[in-house]
Amino acid sequence: MMLRLILISALLATPALAADDGAKVAAKYNCLACHSIDKKIVGPSYKEVAAKYKGQKGAEEMLMAEVRKGLPGGKWGPIPMPAQQIDDKDLRTIIRWVLAQ
């Protein structure tokens, strides 16, 4: 019984840990210099990005490609986003966190 409670507790804590990891990794790569969770700074807020791509098949891969290549001005505003050098694991963590907003 005790083992079952421990496993359930661990499973319930996993999304919170994943969210915390996403925020930490985004901070590590200075994403928060141009983006915030709920307000446009230079780039769109993460909630705006999540709303635009909610339920869209392939959104994760498309966003990963856009972050890697950068974006010209016009998609989210007049200021372009430069290409980012983020390893695959960290980038996937950030993108999943953004899409979960």
UniProtKB/TrEMBL annotation:
<feature type="signal peptide">
    <location>
        <begin position="1"/>
        <end position="18"/>
    </location>
</feature>
<dbReference type="GO" id="GO:0005506">
    <property type="term" value="F:iron ion binding"/>
</dbReference>
<keyword id="KW-0408">Iron</keyword>
<dbReference type="InterPro" id="IPR002324">
    <property type="entry name" value="Cyt_c_ID"/>
</dbReference>
<dbReference type="InterPro" id="IPR009056">
    <property type="entry name" value="Cyt_c-like_dom"/>
</dbReference>
<keyword id="KW-0349">Heme</keyword>
<protein>
    <submittedName>
        <fullName>C-type cytochrome</fullName>
    </submittedName>
</protein>
<feature type="binding site" description="covalent">
    <location>
        <position position="35"/>
    </location>
    <ligand>
        <name>heme c</name>
    </ligand>
</feature>
<keyword id="KW-0479">Metal-binding</keyword>
<feature type="binding site" description="covalent">
    <location>
        <position position="81"/>
    </location>
    <ligand>
        <name>heme c</name>
    </ligand>
</feature>
<keyword id="KW-0813">Transport</keyword>
<dbReference type="GO" id="GO:0020037">
    <property type="term" value="F:heme binding"/>
</dbReference>
<dbReference type="Pfam" id="PF00034">
    <property type="entry name" value="Cytochrom_C"/>
</dbReference>
<feature type="domain" description="Cytochrome c">
    <location>
        <begin position="17"/>
        <end position="101"/>
    </location>
</feature>
<dbReference type="GO" id="GO:0009055">
    <property type="term" value="F:electron transfer activity"/>
</dbReference>
<keyword id="KW-0732">Signal</keyword>
<keyword id="KW-0249">Electron transport</keyword>
<dbReference type="InterPro" id="IPR036909">
    <property type="entry name" value="Cyt_c-like_dom_sf"/>
</dbReference>
<feature type="binding site" description="covalent">
    <location>
        <position position="31"/>
    </location>
    <ligand>
        <name>heme c</name>
    </ligand>
</feature>
